[in-house]
Design brief:
Blueprint (H helix, E strand, L loop, with lengths): L1 H17 L4 E9 L11 E12 L2 H15 L6
Antiparallel strand pairs: 1-2
Length: 77
């Protein structure tokens, strides 16, 4: 999941740089398949906010990894 999230983050950062934009915050959302709640259902989200906007991929990745490690739970499909 971490690799997939970072892939999409990298793509979003590329688009932001192309449009001369920067982010103040990153939100990560994880959820099991709500139509197949086996063995159990789980969803969670968290946001990392910064006072300084950035479009630097490394900074955005650090923010995202912190959030993902906070909300991710082992044992869910």
């Amino acid at each position: 999941i971490k690799e997939a999230v970072l892939f999409y983050l990298t793509r979003a950062a590329e688009k932001m740089r192309h449009q001369n934009l920067a982010a103040h915050a990153v939100t990560v959302f994880v959820s099991t398949d709500r139509f197949r709640p086996v063995p159990a259902e789980y969803s969670n989200s968290a946001t990392y906010s910064s006072t300084f906007p950035t479009n630097v991929n490394q900074e955005l990745q650090e923010w995202t990894i912190k959030i993902l490690e906070k909300i991710f739970r082992e044992g869910y499909e």
